[in-house]
Design brief:
single chain, binds adenosine-5'-triphosphate, globular, 4-stranded antiparallel sheet
């Protein structure tokens, strides 16, 4: 039976006096991949940052593994097992190794060494250039560093803000493939995206528009709805 690992209820927030999120509800079940689909400006980054404690909610509740983290600091959320990958994903001015170590900063040294070996096996292209600055890598490789960094702490839930940003379609496919591997190990994923290619990974889709959650259901159900199909897939057939 599915069990809930994460839930956000009635999240409301904004910038200054401008309200951006108008009561967003979202759940992630254990080992489930949820894709938060929304166009530019829908409020995806605001929602993800609120989930990570980088933006304070005006109202609402955030629960992870039964613990109320609504007002917890970001580092407490990370220690609890939620990892975050921003749109940029990694620190370009640091080396690959340094990036991954930062991602694993709350992991005991010995475990982190093992974890880094595991991650370098999954990402051979960056393994050969550990001391290189992330800024010297291609956009696709930088994204891989970001994923390795986000996974270094062995999170239970990985929250990602537009992993496709700035990537060519070929690299988008690579990112999807890599995430699929971790998804199959039981990692829970919450991926904010506007690229519908990511629906390949989705067990559940939530749409966000104007700071409000619209649809919440399976990819098939999203497809079956004429208006939603036109809005998100741009096809009428
Ligand atoms: P994108 O795909 O462009 O990143 P998004 O879905 O992530 O879009 P947000 O970045 O959360 O959307 O933006 C939602 C709304 O909040 C937009 O209208 C945006 O202009 C506004 N906004 C975002 N950041 C700020 C800020 N720092 N100050 C004021 N308004 C902001």
């Amino acid at each position: 039976m599915a069990s809930e690992i994460f839930s956000a209820k009635n999240l409301q927030t904004g910038y200054g006096r401008v309200q951006v999120l108008w009561g967003a509800d979202l759940q992630v079940q254990r080992a489930q991949t949820v894709v938060l689909l929304g166009a530019n400006g829908a409020g995806k980054t605001t929602l993800i940052k609120t989930i990570m404690g980088l933006i304070k909610p005006w109202q609402g509740e955030i629960v992870f593994e039964g613990a109320d983290l609504t007002h917890a600091r970001t580092d407490k959320r990370v220690r609890a097992g939620i990892s975050y990958m921003s749109e940029i994903g990694c620190f370009p001015g640091l080396s690959i190794d340094e990036n991954i170590r930062i991602g694993g900063q709350f992991t005991p040294a010995e475990r982190l060494r093992e974890r880094m070996d595991e991650l370098y096996e999954v990402f051979p292209a960056i393994a050969t250039r550990r001391k290189a600055l992330a800024s010297s890598l291609s956009g696709g490789q930088r994204k891989m560093v970001g994923i390795a960094k986000a996974l270094a702490g062995d999170p239970k839930l990985l929250v990602m803000d537009e992993p496709s940003a700035g990537l060519s379609p070929l690299f988008v496919q690579e990112v999807i493939q890599v995430l699929g591997r971790f998804r199959n190990t039981g990692l829970s994923l919450l991926i904010a995206e506007q690229n519908i290619k990511f629906l390949e990974l989705a067990d559940h889709v939530v749409t966000l528009s104007g700071g409000r959650v619209g649809f919440s259901g399976t990819v098939e159900a999203l497809h079956a709805d004429d208006a939603l199909r036109r809005a998100y897939f741009g096809v009428t057939g």
